[in-house]
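Here is an idea for our session: we take a single protein and study its fold together. To get us started, please write out a protein record for me. Once you have written the record down, we can walk along the chain together.
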Amino acid sequence: QLQIVESGGGLVQPGGSLRLSCAASGFAFGNYYIGWFRQAPGKEREGVSCISSGGVTIDSADSVKGRFTFSRDNAKNTVYLQTNSLKPEDTAVYYCAATRFYDKLRPCPSDGMEYWGKGTLVTVSS
């Protein structure tokens, strides 16, 4: 059964860190590009990053550069999002999604991802 499950969210103070995980099963995970997305309350979903099948970060949002890092372990069918120096504006539900297809002009487009997880909530608040 195909499944993507995010975990690791929670409540953290500004300046804190969390490591989010995205575990996949039921498909050839190692052949897929993985995108991280987030949706803040009352806002549209936005792309956070796109990671190649080999673990290279192809793209990341300007708002998280220098604070968030991305990695994957294909042996564990898992992708990680390390968040550091969190800000209240990082509060959102974080999703990961997978696609086999790559367009260098639109890496990991939200409307082009094939499989989605249900998300994990990150709340940054004092």
About this structure: The mean pLDDT is 95. DSSP finds no helices and eleven strands in the chain. The first strand starts at residue 3 and ends at 7.
